[in-house]
């Protein structure tokens, strides 16, 4: 599986697996099925359950089109709304464990999702052949919308255990120490934990000290060294972040 190196705001490269064309197609089909189910449900409700079909009688063609457009409009904005709310995922993408990310390391925003949505009109031309060709020939399996918005779709299917992620096992009665950790991002925490584990494996005290000082500077914390060692401090920061962001759920 090909990978993409994303440079974070801390100027650190993190490698992610690129979502395969197959996974993206299956996610698209799953989302399409959801939209088809919505269309069937809304039309059945409108015409059968509520019996409102009579409202269309006597209307001109443009008015009828307007009514149908209003009823089915959610299917049109389905991708941009859900990607915005689900941080780069739709139900189909979530099932397939893939996500839209910015290749420059920043969090993708509404504007990026909007660009992808607009270009979807071109990408889906000829039954999606345009987008498929773009994904096949582009370096990072990007369709035209991805290229225009500077995004890529990565796979979250990593055969790794919890120690390789930002996740941390936390007991139910865990009491956090530093609420300031919510100022950190997932990328920040991934970098912190990755470097912390590497330093711990080789007992690199210098890296641990620098990492501890960096965290204290970012969070503006002053820690009494007689109450908590640098290693304990970093461990608590990792657990606190998972506690406040619900990453252990």
Task: Write a structural description.
By secondary structure, the chain is an alpha+beta fold. It folds into two domains: 3-155, no CATH class; 162-245, no CATH class. Helix content is 57%, strand content 8%. The protein has a four-stranded antiparallel β-sheet with strand order 1-2-4-3. A hairpin with a 5-residue loop joins strand 1 (3-7) and strand 2 (13-18). Helix 7 (186-202) packs antiparallel against helix 8. The longest helix is centred in the N-terminal third of the chain and has 29 residues, at 21-49. The protein is elongated and about 85 Å long. The protein starts with a strand and ends with a helix.
Quaternary state of this entry equals single chain
- The H-and-E topology, N to C, reads as EEHHHEHHHEHHH
Overall geometry comes to elongated
* Strand count: 4
Major beta sheet summary: 4 strands, antiparallel
Uncertain runs: 159-166
Residue-averaged pLDDT, rounded? 85
Tell me the span between the first and last alpha carbons: 28 Å
Strand content: 5-15%
Rg, Å, rounded: 24 Å
- Count of spatially separate domains: 2
Q: In which range does the helix fraction lie?
A: 55-70%
Report strand order across the widest sheet.
1-2-4-3
Summarize the topology.
Layout: E1 3-7, E2 13-18, H1 21-49, H2 61-85, H3 91-96, E3 98-102, H4 110-123, H5 125-137, H6 144-149, E4 151-155, H7 186-202, H8 205-219, H9 230-245
Antiparallel strand pairs: 1-2, 2-4, 3-4
Helix pairs in contact: 1-2, 2-4, 4-5, 7-8, 7-9, 8-9
């Amino acid at each position: 599986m090909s990978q993409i190196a994303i440079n974070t705001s801390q100027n650190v490269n993190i490698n992610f697996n690129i979502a395969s064309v197959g996974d993206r197609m299956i996610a698209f089909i799953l989302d399409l099925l959801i939209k088809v189910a919505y269309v069937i449900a809304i039309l059945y409700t409108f015409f059968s359950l509520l019996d409102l079909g009579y409202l269309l009688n006597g209307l001109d063609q443009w008015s009828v089109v307007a009514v149908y457009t209003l009823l089915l409009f959610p299917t049109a904005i389905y991708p941009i709304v859900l990607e915005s709310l689900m941080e780069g995922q739709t139900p189909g993408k979530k099932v397939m464990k893939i996500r839209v990310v910015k290749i420059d390391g920043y969090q993708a925003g509404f504007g990026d999702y909007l660009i992808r949505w607009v270009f979807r009109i071109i990408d889906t031309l000829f039954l999606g052949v345009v987008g498929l060709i773009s994904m096949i020939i582009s370096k990072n399996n990007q369709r035209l919308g991805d290229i225009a918005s500077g995004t890529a779709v990565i796979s979250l299917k990593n055969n790794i255990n919890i120690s390789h992620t930002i996740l941390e096992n936390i007991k139910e009665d865990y009491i956090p120490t530093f609420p300031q950790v919510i100022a950190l991002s997932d990328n920040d925490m991934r970098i912190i934990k990755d470097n912390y584990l590497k330093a711990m494996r080789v007992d690199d005290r210098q890296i641990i000290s620098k990492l501890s000082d960096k965290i204290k500077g970012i969070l503006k914390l002053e820690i009494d060294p007689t109450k908590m060692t640098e290693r304990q401090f970093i461990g608590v920061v990792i657990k606190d972040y998972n506690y406040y962001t619900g990453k252990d759920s």
